Amino acid sequence: GAAEEMGVTLRRTGYSPNIKERLDFSCAIFDGVGNMIAQAAHIPAHLGAMPASVLTILGYFDVWEPGDVVIVNDPFEGGNHLPDITMISPVFTASAGTRPDAMSGSGKPDFFVASRAHHADVGGMTPGSLPLSTEIYQEGIIIPPVKLYKRGVLDADLLRVILRNVRTPDERRGDIAAQRAAAAVGERRLREMADAFGLDEVMEYTAHLQAYSERLTRAAIESWPDGVYAFEDVIELVENDHVSLVPIRVTATIAGAEVTFDFAGTAPVMHGSLNAVIAIAQSACYYVVRCLVGDEVPMNGGCFAPVHVVAPENTVVNALSPAAVAGGNVETSQRITDVVLGALAQALPERIPAASQGTMNNVTIGGMLANGTPFAYYETIAGGMGASCTSDGPSGVQVHMTNTLNTPVEALELAYPFRLERYSLRAGSGGAGLHRGGDGIVREYVLLAPATVTMLSERRAVAPWGLAGGESGQVGRNLLYRADGSVEELRSKFTRRVLPGDRLRIETPGGGGWGTPPAT
Hints:
Distance between the termini: 52 Å
Structural class: alpha+beta
Mean pLDDT: 94
Number of strands: 20
Oligomer: single chain
Strand content: 25-35%
Shape: globular
Radius of gyration: 23 Å
Order of helices and strands: HHEEHHEEEEEHHHEEEHEHEEHEEEEEEE
């Protein structure tokens, strides 16, 4: 409940449309040594990675005091990609009832509260901070684990440095303040709980809860057939308008009550932004296991104990600095999910759906308003989900590693200098089968001011696969209709300068079908 209330606070106090409308954030609570004890039902790509992130960050600081707040976005030091800013605060329950500026004592916190929010711009090559980069330094300001607040006092100089390196400083200031507000709510609720029940009893139950989740997860895995199951899929690297298919391979080994995912054979780090840090690979694997175990199991660190992830260093699923990683969090995470599902489909054919759209269709648009104020817009666009053995796939939904809303048309057109010409399902884009895959989306923007558009998407060259004889879903398409009448079909990744009257049309992939299509 405390983690959920943190999320409500972050949404209601958020400044940018990406936070208050799309809900592109996550909140969680950890014990004093960094074990996750609760999380809100937010973004899978964030939440599965946060335990490793928190443990990394805690290793930087020997002394914690009431009112401290650590901020970080460095993917190689506890983050996942630069737009996702993580904020962590210690909770000392002995200070319950005191003001932050009057708190005394330091040492070992009883809890930590954490939030991770996607900020619509953190600098870098292009507006929106998801550029076609080749090294981390091109992607925006890199914030190592540092204390933004010390004993409740804001480090104004540090905040000024951060805001000077982004295109939309007012938005960033507002969203950072919203994350701080969410932390304050989590801290208050934990202190109230300790006051009501006593810290010893609360801590006992945090341990019981993790042990309970671990037992249920192990029992579920033990019901799966032991064996070794391998699968491979690809991501689309675009260089000089040429598409190369980069393999991601996994071998899933089910042995008793544990499962290991080994990514040996996956491609090395690429000259592009689709590399992912190890926390993202872990997050995708945890997500798949979580889906199969079921949502009746409380989500905490105990769920992760029977799941092991092995990935060779300097591959696209375990990138090291200074690799570019902007797209790894949003796109490669989806493909890791696909290959893990594909492997487990061999063990659990009646429980795994066909491939979903396999992309987040990341669109960023940035420039200047007529009054000279900068703007930066970010959106992920829904698509088709894969069909299962029992039903058709849903149409027009966010799938797997993303779990956001869209930006409502009214809010979008109020905040940004463009409008939506079309927003509809892409009829017939789901794969045929005994059960059809879900249909994708058509979303068409009309630009009303000069801007720079960057797109990171997938499944434009290789379609989402079907299962058990089902057909593939349709690949997506990115089209730019110029005001002069010319039309350009764009690759899965691109950056373009656009002018008033230009139209950007995005057609997202459909999901794969399941089962042999009925005879006509």
